[in-house]
Amino acid sequence: MASEKNKIIVNGYAFNNANDAALAQEETKKVEYLRAHLDTTNPDKILNVLAKAIEDNIFKTPIGMDFLREIQMFLINQCDYTEEEVPSIPVSAQYNRSLRSEFADTKAKVAPEPKKKEKVSAMFVSVILNILLVAAVIAMFVITLKSENPNILNYETAINNKYSYWAEQLTEQENTLREKERELKLREENIKERESELAIDSN
Question: Which of 90-99, 105-114, 118-127 has the highest average model confidence (pLDDT)?
């Protein structure tokens, strides 16, 4: 297993070789581009982007998979799609096989145990990994929701806040204009009254 010094870190993920790290960096650029151009006001378009990305196998590293999962949750939680309506993300890795290879040396030194126990331990490790993955996804969404910068989840709120600010400014300007109109009317009425008084006095 490669040491930490030999690993290449991309967005918090440690890759064992330069090829995988380069692929992850490419996917980071793709994610940034999609974030900048996704129209969150058009859920059907976002659904089509997700389906196309899965169909064409655009993302292969955890960075791309995290983004696809983010879009999934946005469509389900924010756009009222059901889980059945949103395409699932295929997983190409074979986790059980990788677990067997990682623990091969340990098993060789330890006396063989009954097959039932091996299955239970593998299932236990798989459950732990799934829990950690879910926790990581939840943490990512919490960070994203609390972020002040507009993103795919809080973009609508940021836009609404801008429009509210503009509406308040327009309302203030309208009130100012109305006050000026009232002042002008009062001046006109005063001028007319004076003209009337002068006409009466001249008679």
Answer: 118-127
